[in-house]
């Protein structure tokens, strides 16, 4: 499948919390026209003020050489790509579609197959790190793609990411992202338990977590989710919520089932997320699961 060497026009669909800053970096750093589309007009207007071009999905699908998708779920991806008014109606052979979303592994393979049947080049490039990292252009992105496709899209991804790795063939990017989040939130769960235990026996939890950071329990999760959210019990609703984290763990469990692995830690984590949602914490920042261990 031929990959066009030098894109002349880019497209971006889905400019939410993460998508908007990524699209902004593309529009301000590549020197290429960037067509942008979203059901919410406000971020589109902000991006248009900085050089992006508001476009209906059909125009974007027909004209953009490389199309980035940053969408919240497989259902949203399916609707945008293959729904009643999906992009597939307007795409043409040689275009490239890059999925920046967190997407189930099996669905990624199926999506890639359907696009390839249309002559479309596909790459999965789910983004890792925070909203602040997206705004700073310092995301981490594992990419699943052919070597040729990776070489083409890497300079574009580099406008919003500081760490980019060719993870392997199609689907490998999603494997890396899903397992990253599985390990991260299993660690967050352990931190929530440690916090509750320490607090209930009367230990200063800030001091406790400071001590953990000097030992073998030190981690990104401890220094960010633990010290910045769990210790102060601060769980803003505009950060990555319990419901989003649950979705990623559900996808990780689907991957584990596909691989024939009984991921007991992830199963326990999913049950914890479900309990947190039942308690009304679903919209809060995902480390809010720590509240469960303080109850009762």
From TrEMBL:
Q: Where is the 6-phosphogluconate dehydrogenase NADP-binding domain?
A: 9-168
Q: Which residues form the 3-hydroxyisobutyrate dehydrogenase-like NAD-binding domain?
A: 171-284
Keywords assigned by UniProt, alphabetized: NAD, Oxidoreductase
Domain of life from the UniProt record: Bacteria
The answer to keyword Ribosomal protein applying to this record is no
> What PANTHER family does the record point to?
3-HYDROXYISOBUTYRATE DEHYDROGENASE-LIKE 1, MITOCHONDRIAL-RELATED (PTHR43060)
Full protein name:
NAD(P)-dependent oxidoreductase
Give the organism the record lists.
Pigmentiphaga soli
């Amino acid at each position: 499948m031929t990959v066009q060497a030098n894109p002349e026009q880019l497209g971006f669909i889905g400019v939410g919390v993460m998508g908007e800053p990524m699209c902004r970096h593309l529009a301000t750093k590549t020197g290429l026209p960037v067509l942008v589309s979203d059901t919410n007009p406000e971020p589109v207007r902000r991006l248009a003020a900085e050089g992006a071009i508001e476009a209906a999905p059909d125009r974007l699908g027909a004209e953009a050489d490389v199309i980035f998708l940053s969408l919240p779920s497989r259902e949203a991806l399916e609707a945008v790509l293959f729904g009643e008014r999906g992009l597939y109606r307007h795409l043409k052979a040689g275009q490239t579609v890059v999925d920046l979303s967190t997407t189930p592994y099996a669905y990624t393979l199926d999506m890639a197959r359907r696009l390839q049947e249309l002559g479309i080049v596909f790459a999965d490039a789910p983004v890792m790190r925070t909203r602040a990292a997206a705004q700073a252009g310092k995301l981490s992105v594992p990419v699943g793609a052919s070597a040729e496709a990776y070489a083409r899209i890497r300079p574009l991804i580099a406008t919003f990411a500081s760490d980019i790795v060719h993870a392997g063939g199609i689907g490998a990017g999603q494997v890396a992202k899903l397992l990253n989040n599985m390990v991260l939130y299993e660690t967050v769960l352990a931190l929530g338990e440690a916090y509750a235990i320490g607090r209930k026996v009367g230990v200063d939890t800030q001091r406790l977590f400071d001590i953990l950071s000097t030992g073998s329990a030190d981690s990104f999760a401890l220094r960010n989710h633990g010290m910045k959210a769990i210790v102060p019990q601060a769980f803003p609703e505009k950060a990555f919520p319990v419901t989003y984290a649950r979705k990623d763990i559900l996808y990780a469990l689907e991957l584990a089932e596909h691989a024939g692995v009984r991921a007991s830690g992830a199963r326990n984590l999913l049950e914890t997320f479900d309990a947190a949602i039942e308690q009304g914490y679903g919209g809060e920042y995902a480390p809010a699961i720590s509240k469960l261990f303080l109850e009762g």
